[in-house]
Amino acid sequence: MLDIAKIRADFPILERQVHKKNLAYLDNGATTLKPNQVVETIDKHYKEECSNIHRGIHWLSERATESYEGTREKVKNLINAESTDNIVFNSGTTAGINLVVQSYGRSQLNAGDEVIISAMEHHSNIVPWQMLRDEKGIVIKVVPVLEDGSLDMAAFYALISEKTKFISIMYVSNVLGTVNPMQEICDKANELNIPVLVDAAQAIAHMPVDVQKLNCTFMVFSAHKMYGPTGVGVLYGKAEYLEKMPPVNGGGDMILSVSFDKTVYNVAPYKFEAGTPNIAGVIGLGAAVDYLLTFDWQQVEDREAELIAYAHEKLEQIPGLKIIGTAKIKSGAVSFTMKDIHPHDIGTIVDRSGVAIRTGHHCAQPLMEFYGIVATARASFAIYNTKEEVDQLVKALEKVQEIFA
Ligand code: PMP
């Protein structure tokens, strides 16, 4: 069993009062809170080893480089990558997808080639592909979503053809909480030799993720959704892909040699990390990985499943409340609407009770369109959340009903 009181003590922000009420932070899908272990590691970097990496041969620079590169090893272990060379640091999930699209997509895909995404994707896995479509004439095919918020897998199989040259799908929906059958999707992609990108932004802090078992070509995620700092993310790529992909940003640190006639690029992952990176952020990500790995995954999954089930049970009892996304396998998030009450009003009113939830389209406007709505209210969970916080949300929602009665 997870020791929730002990975990909560790692997150001093949970002690905050908001509008004179105890904070119930249920916006973890947007970003998780950061434990002392992460904040202190970043603090320590700036106070004790602040330096640029890879460049100097001085002592401080060596320390900073060791910590930075140490995170590559930690991330490699977290996702069971083949080697640290498969781990590219960037600014987040969005940057990771854009890199794959602008590098692999631009160099390898041609007019008429089809890319399969899904109707539940985050805008960050839609818009970069549309930009490539406008530039090169690729065709985007969309796997529809079933009413319960699961992927229409029959449609997925039907969409695959000889023209399919890439598949890019989210592991867990940030709106619906649906856990997609990623292994099945990767198996099919591999059978047909189609590269597949897994957007693991909402999976990485909630379940064990194994890139070799999935056998995915690429995986992307953000540190800030896994108890780490903002502005840092990871792109995992299979070696044979990263090797043939051209860099997108040119500059310092991504080269072996430069002359006005000829520049020789560094190897992966360095050729994708031009310029001074977010050193403190990457080091903070390393601390977040360490923190995450102090827990037993089964216990994390059980705990979060219990919270989700409890939230479903309690929310379903509120008259007029509709849960959007009722797939059997869910993780992390519960979205809902309340008749004609605008989700922004719901969010504003529950905030007065100290409850932080997200409202809006959650960067998934096509999914909103599918459900014929413009927005939802979303409660999303992390390891420190409690049933009492769900109760606090439910009470606040009852207040919303009173106000709009
Ligand atoms: N994909 C998913 C599934 C997400 O939930 C998010 C963040 N809400 C993103 C991509 C984008 O992540 P970031 O803003 O950290 O780049």
Automatic annotation (TrEMBL):
Keywords: Pyridoxal phosphate, Transferase. It catalyses: (sulfur carrier)-H + L-cysteine = (sulfur carrier)-SH + L-alanine. Residues 25-393 form the Aminotransferase class V domain. It holds the Pfam family Aminotran_5. Gene3D superfamilies: Aspartate Aminotransferase, domain 1, Type I PLP-dependent aspartate aminotransferase-like (Major domain). InterPro entries: Aminotrans_V_dom, Cys_dSase_SufS, Cysteine_dSase, PyrdxlP-dep_Trfase, PyrdxlP-dep_Trfase_major, PyrdxlP-dep_Trfase_small. Catalyzes the removal of elemental sulfur and selenium atoms from L-cysteine, L-cystine, L-selenocysteine, and L-selenocystine to produce L-alanine. Belongs to the class-V pyridoxal-phosphate-dependent aminotransferase family. Csd subfamily. This is Probable cysteine desulfurase.
